[in-house]
Structure formats: C-alpha cells, structure tokens
Amino acid sequence: MKKITILLLIISGSVIVKAQDFGQIIAGSLPDANKYAGAYLKPFGEGEIYNLSRGWYSTARAHKFLGFDISVNIQAAIVPTANQSFTFNNSDYSTFKLHGGASSASLPTFVGSGTSTQQIDVTNTVNGQQVSTSFTAPTGIGDDFKKNISFIPVAVPLPVAQIGIGLFKHTDLKVRYFPKTDFSNVSIGVFGVALQHEFSKYLPFIKKVPFLHLSALAGYSRIDASYKPKFDQNSSVQSTNALAGYNISAFTLQGIASVKFSLLEIYTSVGYSTGKSDINLNGDYTITYNTGYPPPNDKVTAHQKDPVALSYTAGGITNTWGIRLNLTILKVYADYTFAKYNGVGVGIALALR
C-alpha cells in the first residue's frame, strides 16, 4: 500500500508539474508545441477517461431503503505498449528539429521509460529575425512505475472514493464528491453521480436462481485539477502567472450481473463508456532566444499567452469481471476490465444492506 500511495502522488503531481517541460516546448510555434504536447500526454488524457468511468460497483445487488456503503478503490488503466512512446518526425514540425541530423526518433510519452538525452533544436522567427534555442525531450514516469508497482504493467492510476445509498425500490444513488481544495500549489476537485437499478426482482425465472442478480447503471463523473508551475531561473522560458491544469469527464452505461455464494460474490458487466479530457497551460510567458550575434545583441525575447490547449476523447465497449469477499460489513473486491485501455481495480467498502 505504501508503494501504491507513493506512485499515486508521483502521477498526480507529475502530469501538471511537467508543465515546466512544456515551458521549453512552447519556444517553438504554437502548432508545434501543441502537436508535441498532444502526443506526449495522450496516454494520460485517454487513460484517465477510462479510470473515471470505472469503480462504480462491485455487485449487482441494490441496497434496501437507506442501506448504504462507503468505498475506496484504485483504478489503473493499463497503457498499451504502442502509447508508451511516439515517433518524432522532423517533417511533422516547422520549428522543431532533432539535434544531430536524424530525421526521426522514438521519444517517451508521459508514461514512457528511459532517460531522454535527445536534444531538440528550435528555430523561430521574432520580429522578422531568425532566432534559436533548444530543449531536452521530456522523460516519462514509466521507470518510477516499474520501480514502485512492478506486479502490473505500466498504467495510469486514479483513486476513487464514493458513497452509495438505497433510495426508492431496488435503486441506489451513488455519489463521488470532493470540493475543489488547494494543497500547496495544487488544487483538486471531484464530482460524480450514478444510479443503479436492480431489475432482476421483476423477472419470474430469477426466483429459481435467487443467488443471481441483474442491474443497470448510468454514471457521470468529473475531476478538475490545476497547478501553478515554477520555472527554473536558468530556463529560456519564464512566467509569473503560469497555470497548468486538466479537467476530465466520463459517462458510462453498464449492465451488471452478480452471483452470490455465501462469503464469495462474482460479478461481471458489459457496457459503454465515453469521455473527454482537456489539458491546458495558461498564462503569459516570456521566451528568450539566441540571435547568433555578439553581445549585447545576442538575445531577443518573445511573448506567448495561453500556449497549450489539448483535448482528448475516448470510449467504447467495456467488459468487466470481478470477485468480491463479503466479510459481514467489510467488502474486499478486485476486478479486470477489457477495453481499449484494459484496467485493474481493487477496493474495500463498508456496507449495511
């Protein structure tokens, strides 16, 4: 559990702390900066959509009136190998070129592994004058992941906490909520709501198999986070009001079945999930370039405002299989989801039916 906590902190902070690396990227044209950042952050933007649509249930059974549960689970969207790196082609960029003469290279995405030493040369035009600078391609967090959680493939995790309560007949209301709160330079808020209705009570043949339960669930959730990055004083990019952030929303529809055997319960679901991620780097930025002339004319500055605006969508059919151990009011469960980003989920709950 300690290693999982460490990794969650690494990832939660890293995606917005990486804004410092984007600070170097925006030295190029804005289309180039957004193209590079878009490829680099793709596994995070897509993976968290799948995470946010999961973890709503571990049984098809509904609570009785005012029965409730409080649960905490961790969802981890496994990043396909193909999305752990991307191909950088000089021909795709107008102001970026690989240093050393190569025309293409495989570079890490946000979850990539290895130490990047690849230098990228930047050539831009400021006030009609050709200027230059360079930056080192940002690395990923894959090595940190493998070091701390080596028993599952590289994944993007998300902690989820929620409560569920039985309302009207055979229907549960589930809520995820955390008011937007500041933690030092980071601000995070969460909201989600779902309804789960058990319809097996209406099917006559279920009376012959009372351990089988069927239900349907519709859920929506959203997470918003922002961070105020600080730039190294030696960086060619500076800002006094930089703000990096992301907001992710997801919607899911699921048909759920569970079979309860005394202490053991097996559950499965088939459904559809969809969502959107927006990742932005806002604020005013000053970029210092080299002119190639001797001092005092060796430097020139340019300004950019709100340079990075990324948007990702993801979705598709999902299929989940899980197992739950019912120990009186304590429930322990784990599941695996098949989707474009397969997922692993583990959780605990306190429940009074």
Summarize the structure.
The chain has 353 residues and is an alpha+beta fold. The chain has four helices and 18 strands.
Question: Which labels suit this protein?
Answer:
three-stranded antiparallel β-sheet, 353 residues, alpha+beta, disordered N terminus, elongated, 4 helices
Largest sheet, in brief, is:
10 strands, antiparallel, barrel
What's the helix-strand series? HHHEEEEEEHEEEEEEEEEEEE
Portion of residues in beta strands equals over 45%
- By secondary-structure content and strand pairing, the structural class works out as alpha+beta
Determine the fraction of residues in helical runs and give it as a percent range.
10-25%
- Report how far the terminal alpha carbons are from each other: 28 Å
Tell me the number of strands.
18
For the record, the count of structural domains works out to 1
Mean pLDDT: 88
Main-sheet strand order equals 1-7-8-9-10-12-13-16-17-18
Instruction: State the low-pLDDT regions, or none.
Output: 1-10
Please, could you describe this protein's structure?
There is one protein chain. This protein has 353 residues and is an alpha+beta fold. It has one domain. The protein is 15% helix and 53% strand. It contains four helices and 18 strands. The strands form four sheets. The chain has a ten-stranded antiparallel beta barrel with strand order 1-7-8-9-10-12-13-16-17-18. The chain has a three-stranded antiparallel beta sheet with strand order 3-5-6, with helices on one face. Strands 11-14-15 form a three-stranded antiparallel beta sheet, with no helix packed on it. Strand 17 and strand 18 form a beta hairpin.
